[in-house]
Amino acid sequence: MLSCAGQVVGLVIVDHGSKRQEANDMLIDVAAMFKRVSGGEIVEPAHMELAEPTIEQAFAKCVAQGATMVVVHPYFLSPGRHSTKDIPELTAAAAAKHPGVGFHITQPLGLDEKIAQVMLQRIDHCLKSTFSCEFCAKR
Asked: Is the pTM of this model over 0.70?
């Protein structure tokens, strides 16, 4: 359960957004998985650009579900322009439409040994399947 000093916390997970629908659909799966793993009741996906739902739409959905604090997580690896400038600006604009609702933007994924472990799993899978797994076969 996500909590913060008596606040009802909503989470918006933001990726860049893509012209490819299957890339955008994956964020829906990421949000559902995070909701299941975290026990968070209010978890919404959003795309920074190119697709919906937008940050503004996801923020509003969190508020409609009762969130009094919305935490926005940039689903990015590095602290580049999008996660340090664009997403905070878009979030502030969305929050301005909901007076009394707090918000915070987290760091992107960044450096974490767990990411290296996932990378190792992916590489090991390819090596063990002699590059003929379902993903490699499409290449």
From this structure: yes
